[in-house]
Amino acid sequence: MVDLAMPGMVLFLLLNLLAGMLRVYRGPTLADRMLAALLFSTTTVAVLLILAEWMEQPALRNVALLFVMLASIISLAFVGLPGREELEDDRQ
Amino acid sequence: MTLTDDVTLALLLAGCGFYLAGTVGLLRFPDVFCRLHALTKADNLGLFLVCSGLAVHSGEARVVSLLLLIWLVGLLAATVSAHLIARHAHQHLATSPEDSNEQR
Amino acid sequence: MTLFLLDGLIVVGLVTLAYQAVSSRSLFRGIIHFVVFGLTMALAWARVGAPDLAMAEAAIGAGLTGALMLVAYRRLVEGRSDSPADPAPAQSRLALPIAIGSGLLVGVIGLSALFSEVEPAQAGQAVLSELQQVDLGNPITAVLLLYRGLDTLLEVAVLLTAFLAARAVAGADGGEGSATTPAPETPMVGALLAVVIPLTVLVAIHLLRAGSYEPGGAFQGGAVLAGAGVLLILSGRIAATPVAGPLIRMGLLAGLVSFMLIGLVPLLKGSPLLALPGLWAVYFIETAMMLSIAITLILLFAGGGGLKRGRNG
User: Fold this and answer.
1) Considering its fold, how many domains does chain C have in total?
2) Does A20 reside within a domain?
């Protein structure tokens, strides 16, 4: 039963991510768009853990550990950014 | 269907529910701080429930401790990320209303 | 049905994200799409049962490259605000010939691959049948070091060449401190580093050791260590210097040199080149390669030749 439910849960979480991507388009601030990336990193961890159990691939748990360890790199790189998308209209 | 399966299923489903709540919050809440709040808290509870569900399902000590480690590090990373993003949003609060014009 | 939907969603998502990453009107949105693409790619590798690739993709594709792009974006915007915008560079007259030339090259290689006699890839089968004898539980590490040693050696050489090329382009100033974000004055970053940095070192060593019997190995370990280095650079704990010290130079060359030296020894005894003399050699070379890969990636990120203690160090 659980093994049957796991693919469905992975699908559900992926659809969740798809919905979350809307925030990248809507913004309005850079931080809002960044939140979508944050959503992705937490949700993919859960997806990887479920995949590890369901596909019987224990190494995927190590991948999930890497995800959570390195998730903060992006946030740390983000702090230094200016507040607005100044390059918005420079490209044609 | 055993009791372990029941518990696993319940925990996993509850976890997915919190992930859904986080995403709904991300999409529906009015400003960046509310969204941040909704997302980081709900998702970490979701991760905890998923981890505990899988821990019950697996039952091996090694797997359980690895899942616990993943959750703890994830908690730390999400906390610091939320803090950093909130600082960024707060510092640039003055400039953000202009940005909302380009919403589409 | 669920499986079909699941895999279909990943495939369609990857293509859409890749398109969005290069075509988005806003550079920042493009970068976010790129990061998300990296995470999804790692998920795809996990789904097809390739944890080795998922690890490398998670560390390099999403983490390091994403951070590199965000830092580049910041410098682009900052440069824009205090100096008048440079006029867009005129399209080089060489662009079209180069594009046609590369297209032809790819076409010729593709065609020749299509019509040439394909030798069955023997390394995989050989390794699976002899896994017991070579005493390595992970077929991927065995292929990389025992059966495809030359390929692995050349990969390490390519990484070093890429670093040298980046140094040549970067010029003498070394872009000191350019990759450091204006350090956020918050104790939380220190707390994060205090937990995550030791953990990354531990995980890197585990991946290196585990690489002989389960997914992992020098590339994964090196990528994780590089992630730790990038965290230290971003938070101002270490910074780039124009010239490397002796330790950094040794670290850069360790992988290539030790692989070549140990690989040459068998020639003296009449065995084929790169026939590794034993399991100790595998571990030795893997360790050296891990250090070299990590240092090369960190220096590529920092845009400098060497490293020193940063302003928050």
Assistant:
1) 2
2) yes
| Residue of C234, C233, C222 whose CA lies nearest to C289 | C222
What is the torsion angle, in degrees rounded to the nearest 10, for the CA atoms of residue A13, residue A16, residue A21 and residue A22? 180
**In this structure, is residue C83 part of a structural domain?**
no
Q: Is residue A84 part of a domain?
A: no
CB of B4 less than 8 A from some CB of C: no
Residues of B in contact with C184 (CB under 8 A): 84, 87
pLDDT band at B100 (very low <50, low <70, confident <90, very high): very low
Query: What would the pLDDT profile of C223-233 be if each residue is shown by its tens digit?
Result: 999 999 988 88
The ipTM (two decimal places) reads 0.89
Q: Which domain holds residue C308?
A: 130-313
- Domain region containing A20: 2-79
DSSP alpha helix (H) spans, B29-60: 32-58
Identify all chain A residues contacting C236, using CB atoms and an 8 Å cutoff. none
DSSP type of residue C122? H
Q: What is the mean pLDDT of residues C239-245?
A: 78
Question: Do A7 and C2 make contact, defined as CB atoms within 8 angstroms?
Answer: yes
Which residues have CB under 8 Å from A37's CB, separation 6+? A74, C32, C35, C36
- The answer to whether residue B97 is domain-embedded is no
Tell whether C170 lies on the interface with A, counting CB pairs under 8 A.
no
When comparing pLDDT for A83 and C78, which is higher? C78
- B19 near A CB under 8 A: yes
The answer to whether residue A37 is domain-embedded is yes
C-chain CB neighbours of B84 within 8 Å are 184, 186, 188-189
**B83·C188 Cβ contact <8 A:** yes
CA distance C188 to chain B (A): 6
Distance between CA atoms of C31 and C285, rounded to whole angstroms? 36
The token pair at C3 is 């499986």
